[in-house]
Amino acid sequence: MSVMDVNEILGILPHRYPFMLVDRITEMDTENHSIVGYKNLTFNEPFFQGHFPDEPIMPGVMQLEAMAQISGILLNKANDKVGEIAYFMAINKAKFRRKVVPGDVLRMEIKVTRLRSRMAVVEGKAYVGDELASQAELMFGYGA
Predict the structure, then answer these.
(1) What residues are labeled active site?
(2) Domains of the chain
(3) Element (H, E) at 119
(4) Which of 3, 8, 66, 82 is the most exposed place for a label (fewest CB within 10 A)?
């Protein structure tokens, strides 16, 4: 059911291990500016080793980064900027609602709320199952 697998994602995003936080894209609507992507979390994720050794939790900033990476895929496709990097510029209204732990599958839903030629704002939500784990408004710009 993948719209985009990891090999296609690697062709768009500049991120690589250990900072690649997107495993697959299952929905992408470039007309309505929305996308759904996933990160499968295993105990082997580097951040779990130090955050925290006795109770591994995915850091909130890593959840936001995963949303930003998925947003970058959508923005490059929807804004006809394939080959350019959408730079993460601001975070607003970030909230963390539940722990994200090894074994979880993080489903991220992104919707563009503002799109201009050199800037975009998206609303991102991350879920584990049907439970909201985190959310934020993210802003992006394209370099000059």
Answers:
(1) 51
(2) 6-142 (3.10.129.10)
(3) strand 119-128
(4) 82
